[in-house]
What does this fold into?
Amino acid sequence: MIQSLYTASTGMLGMQTQIDTTANNIANVNTIGFKKSRAEFADLMYHVMEYAGTSTSDVTKSPTGMEVGLGVRPTAINKIFSEGSLKQTDNNLDMAITGQGFFKLELPDGTEVYSRNGAFKLDENGTIVNSDGYKLIPEIVVPPDATDISIGTDGIVSVIQAGQTQATQIGQINTTNFINPAGLHARGDNLYVETDSSGQPVEGTPGVDGLGTIRQGFVELSNVELVVELTDLITGQRAYDSNSKVITASDEMLQTVNNLKR
It folds into this structure.
């Protein structure tokens, strides 16, 4: 009877993890390039009172055995890297990756990070950077007299400078992919860092070797689906409530035992 208290408490803790994960997804429904997460669970070890196959007589065996589970535990919070919808912005520095891949950025300390957020801008030197000022790698500097910027689906960046009619190529945007993107470490600000689980970064030309192409003038929206998240929120809340009722029922049973008199 006491065990049911601890078993139900693991259920409540597990559902709290699911609700926390769902809440983060909903909070980022309008975050450009955000990838939703999914909480995953596994049952805990079992208290075995009788193994299946145990002899019940000289000629018979137990067909099922007797095993009582001890609850549930979170095993992973998995990032889902499905592609989000594209939104046209008409900003010639906005970029979206159609397909697999990440933009590579460099932090001020030299650390390489990766992102699906393609809302880029120019800094005071004409360098293409993200909203926090982190440089896009390879670094691309737009001339101050550029009147138009064109970015091809293959990542080639060209500009038309004042007094000219022909475009001049000024750089190449590469994209990077990983064998296991779900193994990347999410450090916030739409940035991911390579880990041992993600595998080595594979950098290349957009549209080549399975890498996605670049769409200028678009950004990729969050892949969060509100209907799905709200459904998960309801099921998590109901499961949490059900586990709390198990604790209440177990407590009432213990109270009944404590009230027994000779």
